[in-house]
Amino acid sequence: MEARLERAVQKRQVLFLCVILGMSWAVTEPLRYSVAEETERGTFVANLARDLGLGVEELSARGSRIVSDQNTGFLLLNPLTGDLLLNEKLDREELCGPTEPCVLPFQLLLEKPFQIIRAELQVRDINDHSPVFLDRRILLKISESNTPGATVLLESAQDSDVGTNSVSNYTISPNAYSHINLHDDGHGNIFPELVLDQVLDREEMPELNITLTAWDGGSPPRSGTTLVRILVADINDNAPEFVQSSYKVKVPENTPVGSLVIAVSARDLDTGSNGEIVYSFFYATERILKTFQINSTSGNLHLKAELNYETTEIYSLTIQAKDGGGLSGKCTVVVEITDINDNSPEILMSSLNSPIAENTPETVVAIFRVRDRDSGNNGKMMCSIQDALPFVLKPSVENFYTLVTESPLDRETRAEYNITITVTDLGTPRLKTQHNITVQVSDVNDNAPTFTQTSYTLWVPENNSPALHIGTISATDRDSGTNAQVTYSLLLPPPRDPHPGLASLVSINADTGQLFALRALDYETLRAFEFRVGAADRGSPALSSEALVRVRVLDANDNAPFVLYPPHNASAPCTELLPRAADAGYLLTKVVAVDADAGQNAWLSYQLLKATEPGLFSVWAHNGEVRTARPLGERDAPRHRHPPLSASVTLHVLLVDGFSQPYLPLPGAAPERVPADPLTVHLVVALASVSSLFLFSVVLFVALRLCRRSGPAALGRGSVPEGPFPGPLGDVSGTGTLSHSYRYEVCLMGGSSGASDFNLLKPIVPNLLPQTTGREVEENSSFRNSFDF
Questions:
Q1: Which of 33, 47, 64, 209 has its CA 20 to 30 A from that of 405?
Q2: Is the model's pLDDT at 161 over the cut of 70?
Q3: How many CB atoms lie within 10 A of CB 649?
């Protein structure tokens, strides 16, 4: 335990003996003032501002106030004028007793910056008490054998005043037998002695009464009297004599009541009643009578009340031994009280600053004073606080300490400190006192708001309703109070921001951080945008932070597909030529459409809603290719009309035996009327075919024979070759799709001159497919060569 205590001394404790030097802010000599006791409250004592050479404003700004060891506010400082005033009536006898001079130390405490100025107030005594004899009557027995010049010590008077106002003289009433001499004991006390002027004769005058008067030195003087009754006794040869004229004893202050202090002894050579000795106190004060008692027979001095070294360190007693004949002897007993460590140290708080602002080093938290009423090592003290705290104790003068911050405090780390101030004396056993203080740390706006995320991504469906809540941003501030109240705002975009109109798109709730879309958003116009938001606290100065908000617009299926090919804005329907010799799966054309939406909303599916021959054509659902579903027959109508694949596209399909059959629809030609219902036509054809089946077979056979015989000649004249079309017409790319680069309307015109001409028209649509491969070029070249291109 003691080892830990010694280590603590090395770290944070300072013995108050080491305080007296090196303090630049301490005044070496105290300021001294005086005031008479019983002076009225509010009496002017001094002007501290003038005495210290400080301005009144400076004295007030530095947080000046009066502190004292007595913990009583007997003085009052007016900070506006610097005047030191008496705060109450002072009774010197109550404050200091017989001690002279009566000095009340106090300190002037300046907190900003910390400074202690010592001062003293001396309370001057006034003559407000008269001398008082403890006994109204004093009985003396004087033997008639006493010769002139014999002295008898009388009881002295008590006066609470001191100095010149205390007892300074004694007188007796005029008589022919005695007079008064003054005896000084060397400690400032005056005792009256009665001196016999002539021999007393018991037969002539058995009793003598005189008046003893005590006078003080005040102005005017005060007095007190007592009656001295002298009884003349028969001859008594011997007076009692003490073995020692003076005794001296040391008694610890913790001596139990009733304990024997000392035993005095006197002898008388007479016999009988003249030799019987009675012990008593002589001119004992009230304090002595309350503290001690003496056995009148044995002379043993006992303790009547508890001793207190801090109140009275020494007692001086006069003990009288008187025999039966009236003769007496006296001795002095000096009782010295020895100090023991019976007083724990005291902590007197002068000021406590709580809360204290964070981030402010060397801040004075508390000012206090320690004291121990014991003496010697029992009164030496050391002061400490706990380890691992950002505070340190600094000693000052007059046992003052300041508790200051050792390093800047952080309220966000710790908002409250419980500090235990421990004061331990060096007595045996060691006594200690602890005082707990709580220090609150006030907030300083040293933390900017922090967003929960550095960036936010919000998803908003398009075509939203105005004022739609699209999301919430949040920021927290580690500070407290107004320093932690966060307000949100949209930050203005830079001048070159790609979305300068963001203020018309979103708004933010300044208190909650809720974001709202101000108008409906269109995915096809604005798919995404971003902006920055700020969060600022309400401290002074305000701190802020930023975060990025990205808004993604979710697509809704609000756009119908748009057909790029066949062109839906052409003035005439789009016509496609289909050779009758085409096999099943022949690629007639490809419908190309797009959708402005995205994702699944842009996935297109093609289907054939209505056709002249429903079973003849089919549309691939995923790529829009229109192909023959079966080989063509003679019964198939030469013209087919498909209803619109979209709201504005119509596709006409013309069946031709070969490219030699001339047909080229004029751009301005009106569309032909759609044939009758295909079911009716089929019924009519079926009925007609039953009756003419044979004739039709013969004609067909003859026609085929004629075509075979005239094949070479027809080729030379540019006729269409019989049989199926070459491969390149069926599938140029090998993927089942006819390349747009080689999709032409071809019409074989036969004139009267018998010559064959090719009219090459421009492509119907631009080349939307990738570059054709070399194999495609060769196949197309061979195709052209077969027609003598």
A1: 64
A2: yes
A3: 21
